[in-house]
Design brief:
The chain is α+β, with helices and mostly antiparallel strands. It folds into two domains: 198 residues, Transferase(Phosphotransferase) domain 1 (Transferase(Phosphotransferase), domain 1, Orthogonal Bundle), CATH 1.10.510; 115 residues, Tumour Suppressor Smad4. 23% of the residues lie in helices and 20% in strands. The chain has a six-stranded antiparallel sheet, with no helix packed on it. The protein has a four-stranded antiparallel sheet with strand order 7-8-9-12. A hairpin with a 3-residue loop joins strand 10 and strand 11. Helix 1 runs antiparallel to helix 6, helix 3 crosses helix 5 and helix 5 packs antiparallel against helix 6. The longest helix is centred in the first third of the chain and has 17 residues. The chain starts with a helix and ends with a strand. Keywords: Plasmid. InterPro entries: Kinase-like_dom_sf. This is Kinase.
């Protein structure tokens, strides 16, 4: 029921560190209720070519190429040691597990029934295969072997990775399909951070008050349905498409959307693309500058701190304390500064 905050946890995770050679269950502490994360046991310094890692890693997070060559001597040129590319695999696994409560490689395939150690080495190493691979189903989860307590999360057929929306889905595919055995194709930490920030803005509340998860990621479809309880969205649903300026008066699409729901906030990083919600964000930038409300069957943006809010095409200034109505195809400028945003409203009605 804390899925919204698990996405926030993953986003906050990037504010803590960017080098995680020994990612492990006991090294990352999270608070799913508040969306906070804390990384501990970060006393191992790794400098490529000078200070090699002291540990190979923790099972479940070790990259396949490291597992595959772990039997070789450290001096063997064919031995793959932990590095930033293997860290990218560990990071991808960690994000997947936080969001789906299952491991991306632990499916139903058995490689050696007589040797448990060899089977584990092959499953996590040379023969590693994504449990949600679109064409090779040989490592798919066998639901009959799952505990009822692990359902529905342990069953990818019920809750596939694609429910996390248009930004995280391709990164999971790069991490566990294209890049599982090709380290150069793995998504970077920056790419994960950007995708998580955008995904947070796609989260919307489920209209079913009995829904266990309460929130879900907007898929981009004109008839959104909660993937957890199957409840379709009813009513007017504003989607704000964000554009930003590269030069004065010229705006380009940012491939970034903000879902609107009553009480949803708008922040400095929505007003200007050059501001990012990370460890360098100031206290002033963390303060919301506006919020959305549904009143008299209409959606409104209430301006709390946007100095340059202006409707188009009439160029009417929306002063602080005033509001602007969100109608289909409405346009308004949040800032005319470099990186300032233009918003185009898409109103979906069901």
């Amino acid at each position: 029921m804390w899925k919204q905050n698990y996405i926030l946890v993953d986003e906050y995770f990037f504010f803590c560190c960017t080098w995680i050679v020994n990612s492990a269950y006991k090294n990352v502490l999270i608070d799913p209720e508040m969306g906070h994360a804390c990384i501990i046991d970060v006393d191992g310094l790794v400098v490529p070519g000078k200070y090699p890692p002291d540990v190979v890693g923790t099972p479940d997070f070790i990259a396949p190429e490291v597992v595959k060559t772990s039997h070789l001597s450290k001096e063997d040129p064919n031995r793959v040691l932990p590095s930033i590319s293997t860290d990218r695999h560990a990071l991808s696994v960690l994000i997947y597990m936080y969001l789906f409560f299952r491991h991306p490689l632990r499916g139903g395939k058995i490689h050696d029934m007589s040797d448990e150690v060899r089977d584990e080495t092959l499953s996590m190493g040379e023969k590693a295969l994504f449990i949600e691979h679109p064409t090779d189903k040989s490592n798919a989860v066998k639901v009959s072997q799952l505990s009822s307590f692990s359902l529905p999360w342990a069953d990818p057929e019920k809750i596939p990775y694609t429910i996390m929306g248009p930004y995280l889905t391709p990164l999971f595919e790069r991490a566990f399909i294209d890049g599982l055995h090709d380290a150069n194709k793995r998504p970077t930490a920056d790419e994960w951070e950007s995708a998580l920030v955008k995904t947070v803005d796609l989260i919307q509340p489920c209209q079913n008050k009995a829904c266990e998860q309460k929130w879900y990621v907007f898929s981009g479809k004109t008839k959104p349905v909660c993937p957890y309880c199957g409840t379709p969205y009813k009513g007017k649903l504003p989607v704000l498409n964000l554009y930003s300026s590269r030069k004065e008066g010229s705006y380009r699409p940012d491939d970034h959307r903000l879902m609107v729901w009553s009480g949803q906030s708008i922040y400095a990083w929505h007003v200007n693309r050059l501001i990012a919600p990370n460890e360098r964000t100031t206290d002033a930038q963390r303060k919301r500058v506006g919020y959305f409300v549904f009143h008299n069957d209409q959606w409104w943006l209430v301006n709390e701190g946007i100095n340059g809010l202006m409707s188009l095409p009439d160029k009417r200034q929306i002063a602080i304390g005033e509001k602007i109505e969100l109608t289909n195809n409405a346009q308004f400028v949040l800032s005319k500064e470099e990186g300032g945003r233009l918003v185009v409203v898409q109103l979906v009605e069901n």
